[in-house]
Amino acid sequence: MRRVVRQSKFRHVFGQAVKNDQCYDDIRVSRVTWDSSFCAVNPRFVAIIVDASGGGAFLVLPLHKTGRIDKSYPTVCGHTGPVLDIDWCPHNDQVIASGSEDCTVMVWQIPENGLTLSLTEPVVVLEGHSKRVGIVSWHPTARNVLLSAGCDNAIIIWNVGTGEALINLDDMHVDMIFNVSWNRNGSLICTASKDKKVRVIDPRKQEIVAEKEKTHEGARPMRAIFLADGNIFTTGFSRMSERQLALWNPKNMEEPIALHEMDTSNGVLLPFYDPDTNIIYLCGKGDSSIRYFEITDESPYVHYLNTFSSKEPQRGMGFMPKRGLDVNKCEIARFFKLHERKCEPIIMTVPRKSDLFQDDLYPDTAGPEAALEAEEWFEGKNADPLLISLKHGYIPGKNRDLKVVKKNILDNKPAANKKSDLINAPKKAADASNSVSKIHKLLGNSGLRCGYQGAAASEIVITTLKHL
Q1: Which of 356, 231, 373, 324 is nearest to 43 (CA)?
Q2: Model confidence pLDDT, tens digit, residues 238-297
Q3: DSSP one-letter string for 172-219
Q4: What does the alpha-carbon distance between residue 279 and residue 272 come to, in Å, rounded to a whole number?
Q5: Which of 136, 161, 354, 360 has its CB 3.0 to 4.6 Å from that of 99, i.e. a possible disulfide?
């Protein structure tokens, strides 16, 4: 019988690297031996972990800031040890979390137009791990809920709005955690660990819902991620060190739905998943290619689509959320590939002749609005992501500043200080003088430009404060 070719609108997806002048050049990408992606992207900024002497740092560049990046370009550099992982908040494009070898997690607020000075003061420092923190991941639907996992084999879930650790899962893993993934509505997490187990955990009940031993029999690192339908996709190694990918149903983890062997390369396969198109992109660390597969309900369930190949191996990879793509060019994914000294965007496109909006390629996608507040989620509520249409392109709205109630640390922009904030601020003399000196520092230059100097400029600031 003649074999009929499977129908799929994604069969002809092709990747293309952008021209040299649209790359980010002269970046000293981190050389830390850690299997994270070293890069995080959103519709405003690209963040890249870089080499830094005496501590850890990462660059945050506005997307349009392409070309050569000056060595003196400001960084986010508050950690005292190398940064291992970074993750943008899905509900605020100016908030990013970082985990480091210094055992802390820090949450940062980036100014609207990017950094003009190096950022050393985080909005909040989350301390609770006893060893280095290699994984940070924001909750997909609840505001200000952040997960971190460290080499102390503990997973902590934080309420960033109060700076508190509300859930501590420190007795579920006996070995190093390779990665953690939230499901679509953030009610469950799945983890891959060095003991070759994949666990599905209900974090609020603090119990293991399902687990599979020897998911992949090889000793090298695995990855496990949740798909939109609740199944789990894993990558790992066979006993013969061949790279494998597998699909599992968490309700029955005895046998995989599908298991494929790929090649004998030794780089860890980082999976990037697009829930709207059900495509998984596999980027091997040290590989020079991106393979992509479509997940469907029909056998063999994981369908190979194509491979994007280039000459240079990748040190890390960033994956743009759907709302940051150009829908007019039928772009269905954009990667930010890290080389040794540069970051190169790669655009995945579905070839279409029409210039009209292709609604079959762009179903409604997760928007930037949180479906739940942190307190609601910790009390047991669940909610799916709030969806938006991309028909007329995504226009970023105004992000509200991240406020931490416990420590009363706000973003230091003077514009963000509302009248009520200043009235409600503690009336202690020390705090008042701190506010004056901060505002003096921020407004001093403009005071000098207007011809006021020294004491006269501070007098203006103090008078302004009194009026407020």
Answers
A1: 324
A2: 999 999 999 999 999 999 999 999 998 888 999 999 999 999 999 998 999 999 999 999
A3: S-SS-EEEEEE-TTSS-EEEEETTS-EEEEETTTTEEEEEETTSS-SS
A4: 8
A5: 136
- Count the Cβ atoms, other than its own, within 10 Å of residue 321: 19
Output Rg (C-alpha) for the chain, integer angstroms.
23
- Show Cβ contacts of residue 298 under 8 Å, excluding neighbours closer than 6 positions: none
CA distances from 302 to 258, 296, 408 (A): 7, 7, 49
Amino acid residing at 357: F
318: Cα within 13 Å, side-chain hemisphere: 28
Per DSSP, what are the bridge partners of residue 202?
A: 207
301-359 pLDDT, tens digit per residue, is: 999 999 999 999 999 999 999 999 999 999 999 999 999 999 999 999 999 988 788 99
DSSP state for residue 456 in the 8-state scheme: H
Question: Tokens standing for 387?
Answer: 């969806």
d(CA 183, CA 383): 11
Overall average pLDDT of the 192-203 stretch: 96
Q: In the structure, what pLDDT confidence band is assigned to residue 412 with cuts at 50, 70 and 90?
A: very low
Q: Are strands 45-50 and 56-62 parallel, antiparallel or unpaired?
A: antiparallel
Backbone torsions φ then ψ of 440, nearest 5 degrees: -60, -45
The residue with greater pLDDT, 388 or 449, is: 388
φ, ψ dihedrals at 448, nearest 5°: -65, -40
- Report the C-alpha gap between 325 and 455 in whole angstroms: 50
Predicted structure pTM score: 0.84
CB contact burial 355-372 (16+ within 10 A = b; e otherwise): eeeeeebbeebbbbebbb
* Model pLDDT, residue 149: 97
Read off the DSSP letter of residue 404: B
CA distance 343 to 26: 9
CB atoms within 10 A of CB 347: 20
What is the C-alpha to C-alpha distance for residues 321 and 288, in angstroms, rounded to an integer? 22
For tokens 């980036």, name the residue: 110
- Determine the Cα–Cα distance for residues 332 and 13; give it in Å rounded to an integer: 9
Distance of CA 53 to the CA centre of its chain: 24
Collapsed DSSP state (helix, strand, coil) of residue 330: coil
Q: Tell me the average pLDDT of the chain.
A: 86
